[in-house]
Amino acid sequence: MAFEGLSDRLQSTIKKITGKGKVSEQDVKEMTREVRLALLEADVNFKVVKELISRIKERATGQEVMESLTPGQQVIKVVKDELSILMGGEQSKIAVADKSPTVIMMVGLQGAGKTTTTGKLANLLRKKHNRSPLLVACDIYRPAAIKQLETLGDQLTMPVFSMGTEAKPVDIAKKAIEQAKAEHNDYVIIDTAGRLHVDNELMDELQDIKASVNPDEIFLVVDSMTGQDAVNVAESFNEQLDITGVVLTKLDGDTRGGAALSIKAVTDKPIKFAGMGEKLDELEAFHPERMASRILG
Ligand code: GDP
Q1: Where does the record place a coiled coil (predicted)?
Q2: Looking at ligand 1, which atom is closest to the CA of residue 145?
Q3: Mean pLDDT, the chain, as a whole number?
Q4: Residue of 1, 197, 246, 278 to mutate, ligand 1, most atoms within 8 A of C-beta
Q5: How many CB atoms lie within 10 A of CB 116?
Q6: Residue 278 C-alpha to ligand 1 middle, in angstroms?
Q7: Taking the mean position of all CA atoms in its chain, how far away is CA 261?
Q8: For residue 166, what pLDDT is reported?
């Protein structure tokens, strides 16, 4: 289960303070010290931890908490609140274009789960929002990637637009949108190429696609298991492409949680969805508040 270590540590830390009828500044100090260590151990970005702890300290030692009838519980509420705010606060929605189709561009490194997530997102849009998406294969460098998307399309009985490996990604994307208009697909989800590392060539290509199709959303797919790396990847993709949201995959694994807790603070872009398994129905809207409750138990 994701966050197991972090969750265990935070829960045992807050247990000590929960039942207290009176909370001293010393209690808060000890609690925040342990919360700080737990977060660092979970691979949360150092600066993010520092700012979070100072906010928790300030609120937890405020008059309102100290003078309340259940200060212990109030302190826990502050921690939960701040964790939720850190992950983005309110859950953000997926865009709907004024003029159909809504175009979503999926970007990310190879192996992050981009193609799988493209299929999952299409499935979710149809099931939950009654939409009719067109999937687009723009990864022309790996024939296997096109095949993978076509297989997903078959499984979902959903159309997949591809022009093989010879056409340019920009042209594929443009043509796909024309087809979507003609066939009344209200969402176009473009699966782009990934590389093992962030490189200029890839970014140039993604910028070209962005400029030519003007997507309503650019979702960066990152593997939550890669911790700090996921945060660095998010930072560079965001600098180059001004992404609109993040999809965190593999949250069903034993990720320590650092990525989930740092990405919003570092990029100021919301985590919109979480991948919870390999199957096509294992994508969930990301709810910061629920996630904070899950972590704190
Ligand atoms: P891409 O190279 O970014 O397109 O990555 P793929 O979509 O091919 O996914 C890489 C691997 O990660 C595949 O084996 C997927 O089944 C797996 N995967 C993707 N998302 C998840 C997830 O949320 N949970 C788990 N456990 N596996 C995932």
Answers
A1: none
A2: 4
A3: 94
A4: 278
A5: 22
A6: 6
A7: 10
A8: 93
How large is the C-alpha radius of gyration of the chain? 21
H or E element in which residue 105 lies: strand 102-107
Q: Where are the alpha helices (DSSP H) in 143-190?
A: 143-156, 169-183
151-154 contacts at long range (C-beta below 8 A, 24 or more positions apart): 152/115, 152/116, 152/118, 152/119, 152/280, 153/119
The DSSP H or E segment spanning 137 is strand 133-137
- Give tens-digit pLDDT for 163-195: 999 999 999 999 999 999 999 999 999 999 999
Task: Answer for the pair 209, 137: CB distance below 8 angstroms, yes or no.
Answer: no
ipTM of the complex model: 0.99
Flag whether pLDDT at 71 surpasses 90.
no
Residues 49-69: tens digit of each pLDDT: 999 999 999 999 998 888 888
What is each CA distance from 93 to 7, 96, 116, 244, in whole angstroms? 27, 9, 21, 11
Work out the number of other CB atoms within 10 angstroms of the CB of residue 70.
15
Residue 73 CA to residue 89 CA, distance in Å, equals 20
Is 258 marked as binding a ligand? no
To which residue do tokens 């010393």 refer?
26
**Protein residues with CB under 6 Å of any ligand 1 atom:** 108, 110-116, 194, 249-250, 252-253, 275-278
Measured from the Cα of 116, ligand 1's closest atom is 7
For residue 221, the surrounding DSSP H or E stretch is strand 217-223
- 155, 168, 206 from 148: Cα distances, Å: 11, 19, 20
